[in-house]
Amino acid sequence: MHHFESLIKELTPGIVTVLGVPFDKNSSFKSGSDAAPPAIRKALHSPSTNLCAENGVNLGTEPHWRELGDLELPGDSNKAFKEIQRSISQILERDARVISLGGDHSITYPIICAYAKKYPLLNILHIDAHPDLYDELDGNRNSHACPFARILEKEPAIRLVQVGIRTMTPHQREQAERFDVEVIEMRDWHKGIQIEFDGPVYLSFDMDAIDPAFAPGVSHIEPGGFSTRDVLGIIRNLKAEIVGADIVEFNPECDVNDITAMVAAKILKEIIAKMLK
Ligand code: MN
Ligand code: MN
């Protein structure tokens, strides 16, 4: 971790950092998303493409972003959450911004615990096939199916907008009402929808929001989702200050020809470039 500490000291205000959070102990169905961060980095730097984003930002020459490698995390979930929150807080104390590469979606809870301290009026745009609002799943309140219930219990001031949802259960509909979540279900989504935000936005991107035809490498295949171009459009059209993001639930063990790795890397590239422009 000495490497991480020394990298943190060099961070300048506003810089965008990319941090691997290889933790998948709260996955309810398949493990393997802990291997995602290096796979996404490999795809990002693959000589098959380049580091120029569609908005014109060239990450190959742009100095205002940094890769911080991967956190070393214990297997115990509560201990890992503490370590994730502590590390994110350290980065935010430097006035830097973080894009975290999961890992399963449970990591978003400790990340937001750190963000909510820095940004009391935080908004979250959550793109996912699943609402992840369960009170508990299989007896696990830290499950990757629960992070947004935990977040809104602890930080009720956060405005949560969900997009791409197509697996609502009666329990999760009740939870969405209880926490005043604004849900744009996939069946109601169309290209013209504009989501307005007042104040800083954290973007939480679950790869299974994308249709498995475009991104097969996820633990929970849920047909009927976004095209890759749809989600690039959502990122491009977001009129808000993005202060942080995560890309979670990519599972390299389920991938086909590195398709999903390349899609995750493209989304990462476009989010970094959006945050820098
Ligand atoms: Mn999720
Ligand atoms: Mn999901």
Note down, in words, how this protein is organized.
With 277 residues, the protein is α/β, with parallel strands linked by helices. The protein has one domain (2-276): Ureohydrolase domain (Arginase, Chain A, 3-Layer(aba) Sandwich), CATH 3.40.800.10. It contains eight helices and eight strands; from the N terminus they run αβαβαβαβαβαββαβα. The chain has helices at 2-9, 36-44, 77-93, 108-118, 147-154, 170-178, 228-237, 259-276; strands at 16-21, 65-70, 97-102, 123-127, 159-165, 182-185, 201-206, 242-248. An eight-stranded parallel beta sheet has the order 2-1-3-8-7-4-5-6, sandwiched between helices. The chain is globular and about 50 Å long. The mean pLDDT is 97. One manganese (II) ion binds at residues 105, 128, 130, 132, 206, 249.
In a nutshell, what does this entry contain?
The chain has helices at 2-9, 36-44, 77-93, 108-118, 147-154, 170-178, 228-237, 259-276; strands at 16-21, 65-70, 97-102, 123-127, 159-165, 182-185, 201-206, 242-248. With 277 residues, it is α/β, with parallel strands linked by helices.
